[in-house]
Amino acid sequence: MEDTKPSALTSLIEASKPTNTSIESAYHHALAAQVLYNLQYQHDWTDLEIHTRSPIADTPLIKPLISGLPPHRIYVHPDEQIEMLKQNIQEKDIPPEREWVLPTHLRERWSLRKFALVFDKIDEVPPIVNQSANRREAKRRGGKRLLLATVGDDSTIVYYVVHDGIVKPRQN
Question: Is the confidence at residue 47, as pLDDT, over 90?
Answer without folding.
Answer: yes
